[in-house]
TrEMBL record:
It is found in: Cytoplasm. Component of a cohesin-like complex composed of ScpA, ScpB and the Smc homodimer, in which ScpA and ScpB bind to the head domain of Smc. The presence of the three proteins is required for the association of the complex with DNA. Participates in chromosomal partition during cell division. May act via the formation of a condensin-like complex containing Smc and ScpB that pull DNA away from mid-cell into both cell halves. The lineage of its organism: Bacteria, Bacillati, Bacillota, Clostridia, Peptostreptococcales. Gene3D superfamilies: 6.10.250.2410. This is Segregation and condensation protein A. The keyword Cell cycle applies. Keywords: Cell cycle, Cell division, Chromosome partition, Cytoplasm. The keyword Cell division applies. It holds the Pfam family SMC_ScpA.
Length: 264
């Protein structure tokens, strides 16, 4: 049974190096070269088992790390012209390369974000506007008298529209409900002191099919609520509505009941 090592995907040698430094939470200006070199070489060995060609690219940086590691073990004092000595850090060049790498990586990430946002945008194809280019010049070349005449015509039309708007108001037709129509019929009986009216009297003179249907539906509702009695002597004949007074309904029912008893 074979043993497989799963490696993270790194875009290059510095990508792996930055990953190891960030994972170890090291200060980039104080890299522990010995520790990082050991971890880096361990990753490179795993890469060599997976793909030798890929590992070759990483081995160049591994060699640089080993070189820095060896320099860290040697005396680092450099004599100056004034007789003093200055300590030289062999990690300086590596730090500069890492900072440069991180700068370019951040720029690449920003450009990738812009690219993804751009892919979500759709631009309108460019149209040929040549037919409209000469329109302005054509209007400007009109005769001044025709232009004044057209402007006066526009003012007169606007004046007429404003005058109509001052005298008339647009009114939206209000749709009535069955409950509102029932109340209207009850008020109609009270207002005219009528006991009996014809159906057509309850429909407005300017009423349309909607008013007829609404009045008929309201009449059915009032029959069910025992508010009116309706008579129609023959098919398609005129319907007359009689208002049922309070208490009259019970009397009528009793009267019908008495009639039934008489029949028995």
């Amino acid at each position: 049974m074979g043993y497989k090592v799963k490696l993270d995907i790194f875009e290059g040698p510095f990508d792996l190096l930055v990953y190891l430094i960030e994972r170890a939470e090291m200060n980039i200006y104080d890299i522990q070269v010995a520790e990082i070199t050991s971890q880096y070489l361990s990753y490179v060995e795993q890469m060599k088992e997976a793909d030798v060609n890929v590992a070759t690219e990483f081995m160049v940086l591994a060699a640089s790390l080993i070189e820095i590691k060896s320099k860290m073990l040697l005396p680092r004092s450099v004599p100056l012209e004034n007789g003093f000595e200055q300590e030289e850090d062999p990690r300086n060049e590596l730090v500069e390369q890492i900072l440069e790498y991180k700068k370019f990586k951040a720029a690449a990430s920003l450009l990738e974000t812009y690219q993804q946002e751009k892919m979500r945008c759709f631009q309108k194809p460019k149209e040929d506007l040549q037919p409209y280019v000469g329109e302005a010049d054509q209007l400007l070349s009109l005769d001044i008298r025709r232009f004044v005449s057209a402007f006066n015509l526009f003012l007169r039309k606007k004046q007429r529209v404003d005058e109509v708007r001052r005298h008339y108001t647009r009114v939206e037709r209000q749709k009535q409900s069955v409950e509102m129509k029932v109340q209207y019929i009850v008020d109609f009986f009270k207002r005219h002191s009528f006991r009996q009216v014809f159906f057509k009297e309850l429909v407005p003179p300017s009423g349309n099919r909607y008013d007829v249907v609404l009045t008929f539906t309201s009449m059915l509702q009032m029959i069910r609520d025992r508010l009116v009695r309706v008579e129609q002597h023959h098919s398609f004949g005129e319907m007359s509505l009689e208002l049922v007074l309070p208490g009259e309904e019970e009397y009528g029912e009793k009267g019908e009941a008495n009639d039934d008893q008489k029949d028995d």
